[in-house]
Design a protein that fits this description.
The complex is a heterodimer.
Chain A lengths: L1 E8 L13 H10 L4 E7 L4 H10 L4 E10 L2 E6 L4 H18 L6 H7 L7 E7 L6 H7 L6 E3 L2 H9 L6 E2 L4 E2 L12 E3 L6 H8 L5 E2 L8 E4 L4 E4 L2 E6 L5 H12 L4 E4 L3 H4 L3 H11 L1 H18 L6 H17 L6 H4 L14 H15 L4 H7 L2 H42 L10 H21 L3 E8 L2 E8 L4 H8 L6 H8 L3 H10 L4 H4 L5 E7 L8 H16 L4 E5 L7 H15 L5 E4 L3 H6 L4 E8 L2 E8 L4 E4 L4 E3 H10 L2 H15 L1
Parallel strand pairs in A: 1-2, 1-8, 2-3, 5-6, 6-7, 13-19, 13-20, 14-18, 18-19
Antiparallel strand pairs in A: 1-9, 3-4, 4-5, 9-10, 11-12, 15-16, 16-17, 20-21, 21-22, 22-23
Helix pairs in contact in A: 14-16, 19-20, 22-23
Chain B lengths: L1 E6 L2 E6 L2 E4 L5 H13 L4 E2 L11 H38 L10
Parallel strand pairs in B: 1-4
Antiparallel strand pairs in B: 1-2, 2-3
Classes of the chains: A alpha/beta, B alpha+beta.
Chain lengths: 670, 104
């Protein structure tokens, strides 16, 4: 069995975070993880000089040349033979890629043209890993695909069981940069004796020859640097106080990388139940819903905020200039008597919908999927005829508009020249259309806001036995508004407009106060979030802790692993038995779960797949593990310990206490 | 509904059963007549012709100018309604608001 990692970065290319290559980091990665074979796979680049340096520096591990190529929105690992001749060919192909990749992702056809020897290479696209390969790219690649890279252990196990899928492989995707602190725990074991590209390639195509544990068990994976085999489902961690349970959990978390693990620490759920923190958690859960709900309204605010609301002023100016002109006729002269002097402008407006209409007709003509239905109603010739007519009209309109605009310009010039000679003022040009449009915008905006501040339920979503209710309404004063949008400044001048339902003037005043438009758009109506129980009553302290746990477990689906450290402090046994155990079991079908507990209801009734026992042996943490129900637990060094004795001691305070308890209940019952 | 009327060789703006001489019209009257035009489908204007002239030159100029602008606004009001509707449609539909864009 050989342990391989075919996804390693040694060059910072801009796709990943920046860093400087460190040979020491790479050596540690290879040695600490006891890797037998690696491949260097940088994004769209192969550095022959660096590759040779790496090969020279690494002992007892074969290094293959490789590259991670950006193809059609996904990434594909390409690994070549390490023979001198093949490296040379591969290097030339990689140089070709550099020239082309400047233009963006390559197509599969280009990939095959550039990597002429692609049939000889190991080809591994991102499969159950982002950016995922799409079905059509996969089909275009055809038989040359060796295996598919997956994101995590669970992805490996699930993909391996599905015979319709590619053979999965799991690699570190590690950056070998200076000061690298990360650990990965993502490797693949391949059932081979000799390390040659051809042999490897064949083995990687055979799902029975790839594993993520060296004992070939397909529902297990290794943690604690290979010292512990864990189940891909439920793992129960037990041990006395200070026996190192939390230490082990944190080790597992670090191995997977903090960002990939949902870690629920001891007492965290009760701590999070105070009102402010709880509100924060609630809002985070529905953050997307709130954004989605407010989107159109926020857009509207952005649209109307800059409208010129000087309607009355403009009409006043127009009337005054009109009367002035009319009354000055006794003083009139040849210049002001000219017809053009009082001529009104065309103020021609573009018909924005016209272009859309033409686009729609073109869209119908181009449609292939429904062409049968379309042409059964109206012939293609008729649609073309319609398009021609519309285009003609459009052209005419455009021409007219051009002429009228030029005429307006000309009238304006003439009127200016005449005014220069005449002592009589001109009549102001006024555009009632634009003026009234602005007025309508402001009026309708006010009307919309009036309705938006009316109390209304928006949405109710369920999280198991709880519900989250979203409702909208008006702000109960400046303090609530300021807290909601997180501003500190005084807004009393704006608040009087808000209270008087002059919403348009209110948003203008807010902007005048220096509040940005994004924030202003959230100041009209408040979205309240409330968690309620089955009886539609607000949650008690205990229920909040339960709600927090359910929300965390729901969120855990976005992670590779869930770790819960002694959750029992926050919950009663009824919740543990009726809700928690089922949830954890369901979740463990998706990601592995580690849970440490002293609670016998939780520990025993959830029937974990693995039991992990921690013992503090004079300051040294020892870890034993075994399947649930197995007679003995085993340590990494092969020591055995009685499984039943340890479990009953830790869960029930010993066999005697367990029997006593049973007797007590029995007599209580009678 | 007639909004500009010529009677006895004088020009009037007709508003809420009041006839206001065009030389006495205020900005509020203009604003109200715009609303009237926007809200009503049947709007009429008396055209200044040789048969129905306005004798006073100043009044004639005012009438003529108002006629130009108000008839243009009347012609374009449907376009205006369509434009305003398309701007507010998303919001009205999304939040199920009860707002009639065709009247103010």
């Amino acid at each position: 069995m050989k342990k391989i990692d075919f996804h390693i970065h040694t060059i910072s290319t801009g796709i990943e975070k920046q860093g400087v290559f460190s040979m020491e980091t790479l050596l540690n990665h290879v040695n600490n993880n006891e890797l037998d074979v690696i491949a260097i796979t940088n994004h769209n680049i192969f550095d022959l000089g660096q590759y040779k340096e790496i090969v020279k520096s690494i002992k007892d591990c074969i290094v293959f040349p490789g590259i991670e190529v950006s193809v059609d929105g996904t990434h594909i690992l390409v690994i070549a033979s390490n023979s001198t001749n093949e490296i040379k060919k591969f290097n030339n192909e990689a140089k070709e890629l550099i020239k082309r990749i400047k233009l963006g992702d390559i197509t599969v056809e280009e990939f095959k043209n550039i990597f002429k020897n692609y049939k000889k290479y190991i080809i591994i696209p991102h499969y159950e890993k982002r950016p995922k390969i799409n079905e059509s790219t996969l089909q275009k690649l055809g038989n040359c695909v060796t295996a598919g890279e997956v994101k995590n252990q669970k992805g490996f196990i699930v993909t391996k069981k599905d015979l319709a899928k590619l053979v999965p492989v799991l690699f570190s995707d590690a950056r070998m940069f200076e000061d690298a602190q990360e650990s990965y725990n993502r490797y693949t074991y391949v059932d081979i004796d000799n390390i040659e590209i051809g042999i490897l390639k064949e083995a990687l195509k055979d799902r029975n020859r790839v594993h993520i544990v060296d004992n070939k068990l397909d529902d297990e994976f290794q943690v604690l640097s290979g010292r512990l085999s864990a189940s891909d489902r439920l793992n129960l961690i037990i041990g006395k106080r200070s026996s190192g349970k939390t230490y082990v959990l944190k080790q597992i978390r670090d191995e997977f990388g903090c960002e990939n693990v949902k870690f629920i620490e001891q007492f965290q759920l009760t701590k999070d139940s105070d009102e402010a923190t709880f509100q924060g958690i609630l809002r985070k859960i529905v953050e997307k819903d709130i954004l989605e709900y407010s989107k159109e309204f926020n857009n509207l605010v952005r649209k109307v905020i800059n409208i010129d609301y000087t309607c009355e002023e403009e009409i006043d100016k127009y009337i005054t200039s009109l009367y002035d002109f009319a009354n000055s006729q006794s003083r009139n002269n040849e210049f002001s008597k000219t017809r053009l002097y009082t001529e009104t402008m065309f103020n021609q407006r573009e018909d924005k919908d016209f272009a859309k209409l033409i686009d729609s007709v073109i869209y119908i003509l181009k449609n292939k999927n429904h062409k049968k239905t379309i042409y059964s109603i109206i012939s293609r010739e008729k649609i073309i005829e319609l398009l021609e007519k519309l285009l003609n009209e459009y052209l005419k309109d455009k021409t007219m508009m051009y002429i009228k605009n030029r005429t307006d310009e000309m009238i304006n010039i003439i009127q200016n020249s005449l005014q220069f000679k005449s002592s009589i003022g001109r009549i102001d040009n006024i555009d009632f259309y634009e003026l009234f449009k602005n007025y309508l915008y402001c009026e309708y905006f006010n009307e919309i806001c009036k309705q938006m501040v009316e109390e209304k339920n928006i949405k109710t979503t369920s999280i198991q036995k709880f519900k989250i209710k979203l409702s909208r309404g008006r702000f109960n004063g400046a303090e609530e508004m300021k807290h909601y949008v997180n501003i500190k400044m005084a807004i009393s001048s704006a608040m009087s407009l808000y209270n008087g339902k002059k919403f348009y003037k209110f948003i203008r005043e807010c902007v005048n106060l220096g509040i940005d438009i994004e924030t202003v758009s959230k100041m009209i109506f408040v979205i309240r979030v409330q968690a309620i129980n089955n009886n539609d009553v607000e949650l008690s302290g205990g229920e909040k802790a339960e709600f927090n746990l359910l929300a965390e477990i729901n969120d855990a689906k976005n992670y590779d692993l869930l770790i819960i450290d002694e959750p029992e402090a926050s919950f009663d046994n009824i919740f543990i038995r009726n809700d928690l155990i089922k949830l954890l079991k369901d979740l463990s079908e998706t990601i592995p779960v580690f849970i440490s507990t002293h609670n016998n209801t939780l520990g025993m009734l959830m029937k974990p797949n693995k039991i992990i026992l921690t013992i503090n042996d004079n300051g040294e943490y020892k870890v034993y593990s075994g399947d649930f129900g197995q007679k003995e637990l085993k340590s990494a060094s092969g020591d055995l310990i009685d499984s039943y004795g340890e479990v009953i001691d830790l869960m029930e305070a010993g066999e005697e206490a367990y029997k006593d308890k049973g007797d007590t209940y029995e007599s209580f019952k009678n | 509904m007639k909004v500009l009327k010529i009677e006895n060789n004088e020009g009037y703006l007709e508003l809420n059963d009041n006839s206001i001489k065009v030389t006495q019209v205020t900005k509020e009257n203009i604003f109200d007549v715009l609303k009237l035009i926007y809200n009503n489908d049947q709007i009429e204007f008396d055209e200044l012709t040789e048969d129905s002239p306005i004798n006073n030159e100043a009044q004639r100029i005012v009438y003529d100018n108002m006629y130009e602008y108000l008839t243009k606004f009347n012609e374009e009001k449907q376009k205006l309604k369509d434009e305003v509707r398309s701007e507010f449609e998303d919001v009205i539909n999304k939040y199920k608001l009860n707002i009639d864009i065709s009247h103010i």
